[in-house]
């Protein structure tokens, strides 16, 4: 009798092993997520995206990330896009405006349909990516990081923070539409504030010399959205330190590196928020039916260490409403959050 029971259980175990081996072999292949970025700074968005999908419940083995980085070279983006499309991803996540616009041009040229989630783009409707914020109507949806729309507000906060501010040097990128739109918003706000602003185009490499020739007492510096401006952070920090310029940025990492203040949605949080869209598309929803969202959180940050170094007097009421950020030592070989 014992031998019969032993044979019975052995048979059950053998059948179970064969069954589960068969199931595992038949398991769905990993979901291929294409990721397109213009440069290193935007890896923070990828870190947020991965964490967001993990928090939703996706396991590492269920996802494959195909990452293409143009390393701050706009002319290399097209090559990266072609390489990415050859991998046939199920969905593509673009980590900024220039990536999304150039991908759109390629998809239209090749007449390809692949769902695209933009993890933070300023003015997606104005760029022609969507028809409407509630009903995008195409193959694109994602996060409007609102950085163009709040450019005027950023200048207003800068003036409130430093009451002695008389003029502001605006750094923008003439070659990037979002940057031009942001400049327009900022100039309009300056008129309402009766504040003088001087625009400088960073695509003109003589901009630093021109600023140096025009700096006066009680001047400040404010940067506007552009991938090229993101890549020039260290250059701006040198300018700020050399001429003791109070400065306003967009992102936390810029304030950590030496800008006085910042106002915007962080790279990491934009990526994290975009994970919801990727999950929804993977589950069968179409981008055209997924409303574009604003950032979950827009931060106002101040670096008090920088204010002390500059010797500038800040509005104490503004300090109580801000998130205090400290100078951060340069990372040593660490790229992802």
TrEMBL record:
Domain of life: Bacteria
Residues annotated as signal peptide: none
Residue ranges crossing the lipid bilayer per the database entry: 6-23
Keywords of the record: Membrane, Transmembrane, Transmembrane helix
UniProt keyword Iron-sulfur present: no
Pfam family, one: ABC_sub_bind
UniProt cross-references to InterPro entries, sorted A to Z: ABC_transpt-TYRBP-like
Aminoacyl-tRNA synthetase keyword on record: no
Classification via PANTHER family: ABC TRANSPORTER, SUBSTRATE-BINDING LIPOPROTEIN, ABC TRANSPORTER, SUBSTRATE-BINDING LIPOPROTEIN-RELATED
Name of this chain's protein: ABC transporter substrate-binding protein
Organism for this UniProt entry: Bacillus aquiflavi
């Amino acid at each position: 009798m014992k031998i019969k029971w032993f044979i019975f259980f052995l048979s059950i175990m053998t059948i179970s092993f064969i069954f589960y081996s068969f199931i595992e072999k038949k398991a769905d292949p990993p979901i291929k997520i294409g990721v397109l970025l213009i440069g290193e700074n935007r890896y923070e968005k990828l870190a947020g995206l991965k964490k967001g999908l993990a928090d939703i419940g996706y396991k590492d083995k269920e996802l494959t990330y195909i990452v293409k980085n143009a390393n701050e070279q706009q002319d290399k983006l097209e090559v990266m896009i072609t390489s990415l499309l050859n991998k046939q991803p199920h969905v593509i996540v673009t980590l900024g405006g220039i990536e999304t616009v150039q991908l759109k041009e390629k998809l239209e040229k090749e007449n390809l349909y692949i769902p695209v989630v933009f993890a933070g783009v300023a003015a997606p409707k104005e760029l022609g990516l969507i028809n409407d914020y509630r009903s995008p109507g195409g193959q694109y949806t994602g996060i409007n990081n609102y950085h163009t729309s709040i450019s005027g507000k950023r200048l207003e906060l800068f003036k409130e923070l430093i009451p002695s501010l008389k003029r502001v040097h605006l750094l923008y990128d003439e070659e990037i539409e979002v940057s031009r739109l942001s400049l327009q918003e900022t100039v309009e706000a300056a008129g309402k504030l009766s504040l003088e602003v001087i625009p400088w185009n960073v695509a003109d490499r003589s901009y630093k010399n021109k600023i140096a020739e025009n700096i006066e007492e009680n001047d400040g510096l404010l940067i506007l959205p552009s991938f090229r401006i993101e890549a020039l952070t260290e250059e701006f920090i040198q300018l700020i330190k050399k001429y003791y310029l109070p400065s306003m940025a967009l992102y936390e990492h810029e304030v950590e590196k030496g800008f006085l203040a910042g106002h915007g949605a962080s790279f990491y949080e934009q990526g994290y928020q975009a994970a919801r869209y990727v999950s929804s598309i993977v589950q069968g929803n179409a981008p055209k039916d997924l409303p574009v969202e604003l950032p979950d959180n827009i931060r106002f940050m101040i670096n008090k260490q920088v204010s002390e170094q500059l010797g500038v007097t800040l509005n104490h009421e503004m300090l109580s409403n801000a998130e205090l950020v400290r100078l951060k030592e340069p990372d040593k070989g660490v790229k992802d959050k």
